[in-house]
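Continued from yesterday's entry.
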Amino acid sequence: MRKVLMGEEGFSIAEVMVAFLILAIAVIPMAGMFDAAFKVSRVSYDLNMAQECLRLYTEKVKNIPFYYAHTEDDLSTPMDVDDFYWGNRSPIYNNTWNNAPEIVMKSSSSEPYPGMTVTIKMAYVDEEEASGKTLAEAAEDTDLAADWRPMTLYGYDRPKTPTGKALNLILYEIKVTLANGRTFSDTELYASPTDVVANVYIDKVVNISADTTKLGTRYNAFGECVSAPHHKSSITIRAYGEGFTQSDLNAGLVDLKLVRVDDNDISPANLTYGEEGGRKYLEGTISLDSGGKSGPTNVWYPRRKPGYWHAWLVVNHIISVRSDIFVVEYPVPVYYSPGSSYSDSDGNKSGRESSTDEVLTFTNVAYVTDLLSYNYPNPGVGAVVQLVHTETHPDTGEPVDVINCTNMSISPTANKGYQGGLTVTARFNFNGHIGGYYKVRIINCIERATPDINVMGNTYCELPASDNYYLEGPPGIFDVYVKGYVEPGEVYVESTTPQVRSFGYDDRPYMYWLRVEGVNFDSFVTLKMGIGSSAPPTGDVVFDAVRVNWIDQHTLEAVFDFAPYVGPGHYGKYWLYAQNSNGFGYALAPAFEIRRPAPIIYDYQVETYGLWQNYFDVQVSVDGECFDRDPLTGTDFQLRIQEVADPANDWLATEAMEDPVPSQYGRHVEAKLNLVDCDLGQWMFYGLSVPAGLTDYGFTDTLRPTPVTYLTNLNVTLGAPVLRTASVPTDPAQYSLIIMSRYDAVVGGSWMGWSNWFQSIEGTYANIPPWGNIYNAWAWENDPAHGTVEYRTKGEMYFQEIRGMGFNKGSTLSVQVMNNDAPPHTGMNYTWTGLTVHMDRSQAKVWVEMDETMRATTGPDEGGMGRMRLRNDASGVWQDWYINRIAFQREG
């Protein structure tokens, strides 16, 4: 990226143009208080969450314009970075970095990342001030014009120096503070994007030293070393990139250096130009054992600070910065095998969880650093001896437990550990840690508070497996969830619930069959559950498992009966305590939630039809818990639906429901849903206890690694219009059709006139010539041109009522009727359109109706029975024919 810089010293353009600026100048996250018994998994979790939070709010800043020229219309509205984050300063143009106010971006009570407070401080940087200084020093030495103000008119809010030079770089620090006081921070450089032009950039910086002792431990995806130990000199590096030439280098127009905020720049010596496979590079040597910045916080002085460094490239005043491109790191601790040794207090490399002061002594080791003494609880800077459990968590792959030493010392101390022949003494507090075998690690740490091998700059060694340490201690519990149910009579029902559940209900007629997963369970392990204090396990309610089945050292299955112990006032999250036969126990708190009885639906299946508007008799199978029915006590439950868009529509969902029966989910019930008068869209499907009026719809199981919320919804959609029964019913109570018809006939050579209207209800048994005994709804035939005069008739009909399902709510229906086979006679073929749809949810009834004014001419019986079909006018799609659904009766 190209950016031309020009000042009063003779450059040709007034502003600095910075291009391809991937500018992340990161400070390794800082931690607060160090607790000896605090597991590294927790530290890693905090670190990961804080880093996610840092990334989020770092990007939020970059999404704000670098500079925005205010108008009178938006003068009171923050628009650019300094509008939001400059804060109160005296005077207002005071461009300080060291004393810049920290502005709150997010309070600890707000989402996302509740419990974390995010602050920002900022200052402008004049790139010409950066020569020979850290960026923090350059920011501190950059002055703003005395008439500059944020959120002002006429360009006075454009950041400029007292000489009028526009500033195009912002240095800012995002800091995340946890509830326990620990802080994590990230410092970034933000360039004005309006001045960016692509041209100059650094792609990567690699360590190509032939001397392997000068290579670091971090490599990129191509297998190239991108790190170096900070106790070495004359390390050869190559910076691959673009925008520079041999002639630029010869003319003194190229400047390359490694930079970070809190240390002096590193300028490679003997810089040369080269090309490899069409790629340009600059090559030189750096020394990391000297030149560091002195000061009370730079305990590595004169060595360079471990961690990420960033490449700063200038070609003819064009600047490009590539962040996090090279790692400066500690030397790797050395445990010689053979040659080194370690022992504990009694020489057997084992201890007990009850020990609070176990001492491990390492002899003849090298490069175990102690730069700032480790006096608990002040961790200082340097090495940590760490015990890492050999078992890993099945979900995360992380060690199930990590024990960090509480104090550490080395001898001799003169070189702070940068030598061989060291004796290292580390003290441990094993209280609260899981039993089993532990690998032994020695980690050189930028901050002992974060003894993480993944922190850039940290290095470590791991002792051979033959030197693993054994801790006699308690088991560990990872997870507790419902495996199934034990029905009365010792009938086990195994659950295959879609969601693994870490909760259950009180006062059930069955016992809960729980699966307990963890590590180091012995075959005589016992389990108890309780609410209240979990260490030691005491409380208001404590009870043992009815039985425990030991599967292996990682898995238990246990039966618990809550009913005798839990009741109103004792609902909540319970701990689970596992105790091995050696007397050591471990409590997972919280482990399982016991709730007051309230219906909850886990799963449902639609067995007939679909979830279609204006359908009823929709058979569903529902699984859940607390489906309680007891006529003696008046206890019952309902399945209900409530419209999400209009909660006032809260209705009993069922026309009929069977009694619940045991199932793999707890309880199973078969029911018929009534979707008459339902609007299209989402409906809550929930259980409600009667008369208590309780439901657990919407309950969130927060004890799962990813919380699970039980929201069972129905999505009501349009279905096809159908008659109430697919075929002619044999019971008039199940009718779909009521036909009104009349006739006229030739008697004595003359038409006699229209008869009264006759009603025919489908499902009524009758003898209908010429069809015989049938249950069809019928109408008088129409055959006015019969060859025999005395057989000539006229017939008319209309549907007094058509009952069905799926007739669109708020719309109209069309109905077509015709003879199956009319020729040689004129057959019936008539269509009624625009019939208003009627609904009665309480009767599960959907229908259309006609009156005498809508009568139509029928057809002859010789043309066969009548067929009919339906159409929702909104869709315009005709459904399949109902064949032989209507009979035509001869001879009135």
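--- second protein ---
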Amino acid sequence: MRVANKVTSIEKRGSGFSIMTDAVEIRLMFMTDDILRIRAGFDGDFAEESYTLAMTAWEDRMDDVLTGYRRRIEPKEGRLLTADEKIARLAGLDHALGYPHADVDGVELICGAKMTLVVFREPYMLKIFNEDGQLVHEDIPYMGLQEDSNHRRIHYSALTDQDHYYGFGERTGKIDKREEYMQLIPGDSMGYNAEKTDRLYKHIPFYVRLNDRTRQAVGYFYHNTFESDFDMGRSHTNYVRHHSIYRTDGGDIDLFFINGPKISDVIERYTDLTGKSVMLPVGALGYLGSSMYYPELPKDADDAVIDFIDTTREENIPIDGFQLSSGYCNVETSQGLKRCTFTWNHDRFKDPARFFAEMTRRGVSVSPNIKPGMLLCHPLHDEFVARGMFVRDSKEDKPAVGIWWGGLGNYVDFTDPRARTEWKNYVRKSLVDYGNYSIWNDNCEYDGLTDKDARVSFEGKGATIGRTKAVMANMMCQLAQEAIHEAKPDQRAFVVTRSGHAGLQRYAQTWAGDNFTSWTSLKYNIATILGMGLCGVSNMGCDIGGFYGPAPEEELFVRWVQNGIFQPRFSIHSTNTDNTVTEPWMYSGSKGLISAAIHFRYQLSPYLYSLMRRANETGLPMMQPLFMVYQDDVNTYGEGINFMEGDSLLVANVVDQGATSKEVYFPAGHTFYDFYTREAYEGGETYCFPVDMGSIPLFLADGAILPMAGNELNNLTTEKVTGLRLLLVPSGRSSFVLYEDDGNTMQYQQGDYRRTVIEMEEGERTSVKFASTGTYRSPIEDIYVDMVHREKAPFWVTVAGEQIPHSLHRARFEEADCGWYYSQSKRSVQIKYPNPGRDYELLVSFEDIDLLGM
């Protein structure tokens, strides 16, 4: 066992610092002014060989593997302070020496532009202070960094009663993980309990710490791919301060400490490290139909899927995609009917190319399910063995055998360059060359390889599956992207994955696996999505209606759809245990509510697509916890059910069985407006609203700029927004970026987009300015503005400097192409005009009208 207790030397080394202790060398580097790398080199070699990082400040052995996904920056310089400088700097730090008690000679100070590090010599510990002199991190002395007798590497950090913890990847239960114990061991967790099951499908060792005294946040990213666990204050000992524990089965303690103070700052910087969200085709935001039922039909499953798509149109249900479960590749083998990736059951799918063409003609993308494991009886098994594509046995020179779906099998080694090349060829030949540009990677947790010492290539260096299994899903996603782009360079790829490691957001859309059909799943899956968003994974959802279990009862299904329409991924998917199929029209009495909810999602598509682009540029999630947007209100810190869609729309779904009312807390210091009635509600209070089966409680935030489609949309892939509806709530200054492009190609990377910055400033003359960049020609012909202003009606309205007509009669306003009208019932200004097609200002005067001339 090794414990870092005493510093023997500190020296500047290159662009960083080396701290030698009696147990391990620790290296520090200011990667940026706000990202500090702290690496305890228990392995001793400090090798740089990461499949994870999208940004580095050093040469890495995987640079060529991640070409196009990684960028190099220059690190920032830090200074080791002199004795006199130490004394001066310590005076500006909050309790810098404190516990353990030390004098100036017992510490060393390292300063960057925005962080100061205090290194205690004996016992070793590290304190980090932000530029305001506030303590933002503190190790536990005598325990801080250690390797236990089982060779697990451990980091102990101090926590306080004011700390709250969020993220950790894909988690169940409440959103605040204080006093929780969590494993990061990706597994196949079908039918999991959304409140209590510990491990799910992802491995993302990142979290946000938010302090309710300072209202400031910081981030912790442990750059490590081994199985690990977090204890966020559940355990306790009286001999040291209350603390959190990170423990990993191997590798270094390689911590990227990320400065705040805002949660959004932390997420942007974390996604600088691991990658921004991929820009998916616009159809990925549509309704994605699915069920294991259709591909399992013994004959003519292709016709059944096409008929399902046609039925959605008959039932007035918009649709854009179909997630094709693995029944299409369920073929006869020596051991009977088995699922075999890269094969087709031609009794079920007679002509794959024709099937894809028919779906494309309907504006529907198909995501065929593929898996990285192969049964020993797979028809292509011998080919894969001959090409050396599998993970190797830990002792013998043969493929490692593990448990797989339907029997024993082998797993593909995506750390082997040869295997990656061959895998892409199979993806091309069996799927992409048929005219399909979407791939669904499934069962990619490598959960069935129980021998963690099984060997992988690791780009020729050699490693174990225990070290690398977390990154296999990421590499599988990268290969799917590459296969599609190599076949059709201008086509935007639509990759879906169930598993993944930190950085999966740069490749794929994902979902929280095989949830159980229950009210518990509906309620707690919301926090799961919000937590993933805090980890940079914005394109996330959960199976609507539940994947595994009996069919959802009518009320549950309606409520689930009403919630699901706000999830970045919206897919109704099931394998029901009572021989039923979960479909939008399964309850005749409620299918109108289902249709209306899905249509509302399509109306929101300009907003959702703009938020997808925001995630692509900044890493910020589409679905946000209230405490992320309203960080100053500590009463939001435990809210994991009500959430913000972007910054403008508060969503308070009904998620309790038999509910007749819904309580909503509005963050303090802000005013919110009922989406439907425009009634105002002051923040800092909880209000109770009556609800029925059709209720979707929504509230506009002050300063809201909410773009919606004014024309009906039934397919995002083939139809365009020709009428734009803007819901505006003037309050101080606010802005939003409306983003448009063709939705399907890579041309946006060449500047063929339209980025319209909408800036609104409240006042006696409320101004809304529109400024656009990019070469894309917007299809928007007409604009309808709905501006909440409860105090009084306008005096006049101008568009691009020209006054537009005022109508006092609603019917005449509706008949006109251009004009304005004040709605007394909604207390809002209704304005409509043709799209000027250039930069312009909408100006609304709320000046007093002196009709009497007095």
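The CA atoms of residues 285 and 569 lie 6 Å apart. Residues 465-487 form the longest helix (23 residues). Will compare against the first tomorrow.
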